[in-house]
Amino acid sequence: MSRAPRLASERALILAPYGRDAQVAAAVLKEAGVEAAICPDLAAVRTSCEDGAGTALIVEEILQEDDYSGLARWVDAQPPWSDFPIIILAQRGGGLERNPAAARYSRALGNVTFLERPFHPTTLVSVVQTALRGRRRQYEARERLETLRAAVVRQQQDQQHQRLLINELNHRVKNTLATVQSIAAQTLRGASAPLGARDALASRIVALSKAHDVLTSEQWSGANLDEIALQAMQPFRLGLGEERIVVEGPRVRVPPKTAIAVALALHELATNAVKYGALSNADGHVTFRWEVGKGRAAQKLTAVWREADGPPVTPPTRAGFGTRLIERGLASDLNGEVAIAYPRDGVVCTIHANLDDEGEPARATPLPRRLAVADDDGAGASPAA
Ligand SMILES: Nc1ncnc2c1ncn2[C@@H]1O[C@H](COP(=O)(O)OP(=O)(O)O)[C@@H](O)[C@H]1O
Ligand SMILES: [Mg+2]
After folding, report:
1. Which residues is 38 bridged to in the sheet?
2. What's the CA gap between 296 and 298, in Å, rounded?
3. What is the spatial distance between Cα 213 and Cα 207, in angstroms, rounded to a whole number?
């Protein structure tokens, strides 16, 4: 919308090309503090409307003689906030009921008021001022609409910005994980490194990075547990057959921290099952099932990893990295408890997590804006700096 000066948008257009009617009307309005612009014909009225006007006064004879379809089209094409008021200066005795043309004008020109001639100057002023007051309301509505629209656009831009930042951050995290992996590989190449340590470390880093991928696709707002679990199990299901690892549970969304904790726990559990448990022979199998509480307990998640038909289990005498990671490290990330039991017929790991992520810092927290302009060495990437 063009930014017409305030006066233009509040002026009254006058089309009364007979005698001195227009001049007289303009003078009366001016006296009352209303700016008036005299138009020579309907085309000029239309152009002036486009430039901005508060109302238009048109003598009825013009509408009888001239083609007003151009003005009608402009009326039709008004934006939703606009309902331009038109005052038709009707001929004597041309009251609505006796004047079939009047209904036609109303249909074509919309917001029409008829003012029968001759009229008292005070009547003219009050009719015009009423029209202008209505028009002012329309301008207010327009302003509110524009403010709303701007807010929506801003919100969309912010969301896009946030998506960009999250993608950027994820990209950097992935690069960092790759660097960590390569440093670890170089370091562990030395003769003193325990056998298999390199592969174990590499596969843990891959598990972490895959959980990051799931979270990134969801803008780090959280993840569906089935997606996280299936993805963590995917390499094992691919290698051993899907039927040996069953993943089952209702659709539940978990906070990012929980998603990563579960992904890493599953990775350790599956690796152990392959090394010592139900996935180490030909017939053993594993189920990972979960449920969420109902009603008040809707935020409580219980997930159980259960092995069966593996070699007989003997409770271990030492806790390795897997056990420590699951029982201690992840319990706090899960905001709950984790317990591993070693019954003879198969390991059972029970996870109780609280999904209420109040105070969960990773959830939909806008990243610092300056990340966007961080330099290549990533110096700007530390939110704490
Ligand atoms: N699924 C399992 N079945 C039987 N024993 C297991 C299973 N998982 C773990 N264990 C026992 O628990 C021990 C500790 O496991 P963990 O903490 O992951 O360390 P690591 O895998 O390095 O041995 C293992 O050495 C093994 O004896
Ligand atoms: Mg282990």
Report:
1. 14
2. 6
3. 10
Rounded CA gap, 95 and 88, in Å? Answer: 11
- To test the ligand 1 pocket, which listed residue (285, 323, 327) has its Cβ within 8 A of the most ligand atoms? 323
Indicate if ligand 1 lies below 6 Å from the C-beta of 277. Answer: yes
Q: Side chain identity at 344, as an amino acid letter?
A: R
| Nearest-ligand number for the alpha carbon of 270 | 1
Tell me which of 12 and 359 has the higher pLDDT: 12
pLDDT of residue 28: 96
> Ligand 1 centroid to 196 CA: how many Å?
15
pLDDT tens digits, one per residue of 197-236 = 888 888 888 898 889 888 888 878 899 999 999 999 999 9
CA distance 277 to 330: 21
User: What is the reported pLDDT for 368?
Assistant: 41
Q: Which atom of ligand 1 is nearest to the CA of 346?
A: 3
Q: Whose CA is nearest to atom 19 of ligand 1?
A: 320
In b/e form, how buried is each residue of 65-74, taking b as 16+ CB within 10 angstroms? Answer: eeebeebbeb
329 ligand 1 Cβ < 6 A: no
Band (pLDDT 50/70/90 cuts) for residue 15 is: very high
- Across the chain, how many H-helices and E-strands are there? 12, 12
Q: Could you tell me the domains of the chain?
A: 6-149 (3.40.50.2300), 194-373 (3.30.565.10)
